[in-house]
Design a protein that fits this description.
Elements lengths: L7 H4 L12 H12 L7 E5 L6 E9 L5 E9 L6 E7 L14 H4 L3 E5 L39 H17 L4 E11 L1 H12 L5 E5 L6 H7 L5 H10 L4 H8 L4 H4 L7 E6 L7 H10 L4 E6 L8 H16 L1
Parallel strand pairs: 4-5, 4-6, 6-7, 7-8, 8-9
Antiparallel strand pairs: 1-2, 2-3, 3-5
Helix pairs in contact: 4-5, 6-7
Length: about 325
């Protein structure tokens, strides 16, 4: 597939004028305050993983609405002193999987927390967390239009709040250094990472790969691939909902929430990516408020730098979590 978006020199300057909700700060402050009325109640139960060098714990904590959210915490088996931590959020449709599946950051010597994504986990990796607050309104199959007519009911309000609580949960573990916590993820996980960067003001770093959930107005009109096309298909039927839908999405746009961030960030982008178009990634990058850098992979799609970029991320995290 050829490069289809703007030339790189234009991408580096692309800063779209996005409609920022006037009550954005109040909306998220109230959401998190409401959630924190529920005891975090984080528990860490040993779980067998078949690995000799990593210990895994089955994690449960109270997310949005006090709902139980699952996760894995991986720790190096041989460790001394409190560890820096990396919280990982997952791509669209995936769940936390099995206990041995995602352990890269524990192999690098960190506490590695993998958050299950509510209501997902039947696409490419299994999940264990339901979404009890799923709105009963009509939606396009998938998650993108679940509750999309009202920001208070929208699916990602619950997910982003869960993600903030995941940071709080890992910080509550006695073997984690609460001052040195970074977040990461690819695609949907990258978008969640950007949201958390805008909602948690004392992270050590944010490594966001090909972030999804950014610059919704451009993404939904530029590509016809899922998941963005779920929104387009919904609006093709609900023709009178366009303004309401994009008003809701503005509360969850990584290119908007990232303007609130203070943690340093590492982005990645593939210039042949028709899932998260390059311009939408650069929209988030160019609007990101804190220190930042971006790795550009000209001939890569949604995989971006893949294993090569993992090397770059490990090097970058080592500098921030030392």
């Amino acid at each position: 597939m050829p490069q289809f978006d703007m030339p790189l020199e234009r991408l580096r300057e692309y800063r779209p004028e996005l409609a920022v909700p006037g009550d954005l700060a109040d909306f998220w402050s109230a959401t998190l305050a409401e959630t924190r009325e529920h005891d975090l109640a984080a528990t860490f139960e040993p779980a067998g993983n078949g690995l000799a060098l990593i210990e895994t714990f089955d994690v449960r904590f109270a997310g949005f609405g006090g709902h139980e959210i699952r996760g894995w915490l991986h720790l190096p088996a041989h460790r001394t002193g409190p560890l820096p931590a990396v919280v990982e959020y997952l791509g669209y449709g995936g769940g936390r999987g099995l206990a041995h599946e995602r352990t890269l950051y524990a192999q690098a010597g960190y506490a590695h927390f993998v958050m299950d994504t509510r209501g997902q986990g039947s696409g490419w990796s299994a999940g264990d967390t339901p979404d009890p607050d799923a709105a009963g309104l009509p939606q396009q199959p998938g998650m993108m239009t679940r509750g999309v007519l009202d920001p208070r009911e929208y699916y990602y309000r619950r997910v982003f709040t869960d993600a903030v609580r995941a940071v709080e949960a890992v910080r509550s573990h006695p073997e984690v250094d609460a001052r040195r916590v970074a977040v990461t993820g690819g695609s949907q996980g990258g978008g969640i990472s950007l949201a958390v960067a805008g909602l948690v003001d004392d992270l050590a770093g944010v490594a966001t790969d090909v972030p999804f959930l950014c610059d919704f107005p451009r993404a939904t009109t530029l590509v016809d691939t899922d998941p963005y096309s779920e929104i387009a298909r919904y609006l093709k039927v609900h023709r009178d909902h366009v303004d309401r839908v994009f008003a809701t999405l503005s509360y969850f746009d990584g290119a908007i929430l990232g303007r609130r961030a203070v943690a340093p960030a590492l982005f990645s982008v593939g210039l042949v990516d028709d899932i998260t178009p390059p311009s939408t990634v650069f929209a988030a990058y160019n609007h990101y408020a804190a220190d930042k850098s971006i790795e550009v992979y000209p001939f890569s799609g949604h995989e971006a730098g893949s294993q090569l970029h993992e090397v770059a991320k490990l090097r970058w995290l080592a500098e921030r979590l030392a």
